[in-house]
Amino acid sequence: MAGLLAGKSAAITGGVTGIGRAIALEFMKQGAVVTVNHMDDDASRQHFASLAKEAPKGARLQAVAGDIGQRVTGQKIISAANDTFGALDVFVANAGVSQFREFLTLDEATFESHLHVNIRGTFWSTQAAANYMVKQGRGGSIIGISSISAHLGGAEQVHYTPTKAAILSMMQSQACALGKHKIRCNALLPGTTRTALAADDLAKKEKLEYLENRTPLGRVADPQDVSGPAVFLASDLSQYVSGAQILVDGGLSISLQ
């Protein structure tokens, strides 16, 4: 299959819904073989089944279920990519959780879930990917899905925004650690995007209108808006891009309106 990612093997965590799903579909359209990770539950398996139906004709896709916050899950994803496709060239750390909560009454379980998925999940899975790429010996691309929340505060996101700042910082430090192995590490920073995580917030008419009016492009993002920048970072077009952060927010974060 021809395309910007022809001949490449990619893995994406949280790859059956939202931004991860859009990236998986675009990667396959661009010729990559794809391994996605999802939670080990019936809903996630149904999402994977629908993703497989939506995949381009002739595309190769597989899934690995498991809790991304567990170190072993990242290792299983990498092993599956190697066993089925014989390589791993691109790794996208996308899996994440986001819940709006009051800071003064935040419970421990909510705080721990954000640390577990967003920070531990990103750290352990990218470590597994990096180790494989080093042994493989031909470089690679690691992409962390951060957020404009890495730079901006939110009254009901005190437990969330630091985790996205951590992902950005991880990609910068990994770029330093892995450059000698020709492994590029970059971050994508989406703004508010129409995913299940944002559905309740975007259902509030006043909030949606506020975001649309403040965003220079006049709308919130769709998941596929993030897939093009992901393809760029995964492809050889970005062969000298490492440690970068790319805003995918329609201009929201630079607008004072």
UniProtKB/TrEMBL annotation:
<keyword id="KW-0684">Rhamnose metabolism</keyword>
<keyword id="KW-0560">Oxidoreductase</keyword>
<dbReference type="GO" id="GO:0016616">
    <property type="term" value="F:oxidoreductase activity, acting on the CH-OH group of donors, NAD or NADP as acceptor"/>
</dbReference>
<dbReference type="Pfam" id="PF13561">
    <property type="entry name" value="adh_short_C2"/>
</dbReference>
<protein>
    <recommendedName>
        <fullName>L-rhamnose-1-dehydrogenase</fullName>
    </recommendedName>
</protein>
<dbReference type="GO" id="GO:0048038">
    <property type="term" value="F:quinone binding"/>
</dbReference>
<comment type="similarity">
    <text>Belongs to the short-chain dehydrogenases/reductases (SDR) family.</text>
</comment>
<keyword id="KW-0521">NADP</keyword>
<dbReference type="InterPro" id="IPR036291">
    <property type="entry name" value="NAD(P)-bd_dom_sf"/>
</dbReference>
<dbReference type="InterPro" id="IPR002347">
    <property type="entry name" value="SDR_fam"/>
</dbReference>
<dbReference type="GO" id="GO:0006633">
    <property type="term" value="P:fatty acid biosynthetic process"/>
</dbReference>
<dbReference type="GO" id="GO:0019301">
    <property type="term" value="P:rhamnose catabolic process"/>
</dbReference>
